[in-house]
């Protein structure tokens, strides 16, 4: 089963399989299936062509994949252009949503540091 040029995994349940599309998570997938009247426990290989078409029409109405990625990138670019606080945090590669940076935020900052232990000097006995 292919939607928007992306293959939905055949062996996973349909509600999990739909999440491979950027912009569809678990809750949105279950909402789509409820609206299309498709059983969430079915697998994509067991879905009829009629059910597949109902799902496809609902999914194609949403902003997903490339369009959504472009929209998100445009939002971030706008924040950077107007020099908003969040835009500056994006530019500097720091956490945007108010997290602390003295500790943590290692993945966002990208610097790998060695653990220093307690910071006390060890006094050797002679």
Task: Report the end-to-end length measured between terminal Cα atoms.
Answer: 74 Å
Number of domains: 2
In percent terms, what proportion of residues is strand?
under 5%
Task: Count helical runs.
Answer: 6
The ordered H/E elements are EEHHHHHH
CATH topology heading of the largest domain: Helicase, Ruva Protein, domain 3
* CATH architecture assignment name of the largest domain: Orthogonal Bundle
Pick out its properties.
126 residues, mainly alpha, Helicase, Ruva Protein, domain 3, 30s ribosomal protein s13, domain 2, 2 domains, two-stranded antiparallel sheet, 6 helices, elongated
Helix and strand arrangement:
Elements: E1 2-3, E2 6-7, H1 14-17, H2 26-36, H3 49-60, H4 65-81, H5 85-92, H6 106-109
Antiparallel strand pairs: 1-2
Task: Characterize the structure shown.
With 126 residues, the chain is mainly alpha-helical. The protein folds into two domains: 2-62, Helicase, Ruva Protein, domain 3; 66-108, Ribosomal protein S13/S18, C-terminal domain (30s ribosomal protein s13, domain 2, Irregular). The protein has helices spanning 14-17, 26-36, 49-60, 65-81, 85-92, 106-109; strands at residues 2-3, 6-7. Strands 1-2 form a two-stranded antiparallel ribbon. It is elongated and about 80 Å long. The mean pLDDT is 87.
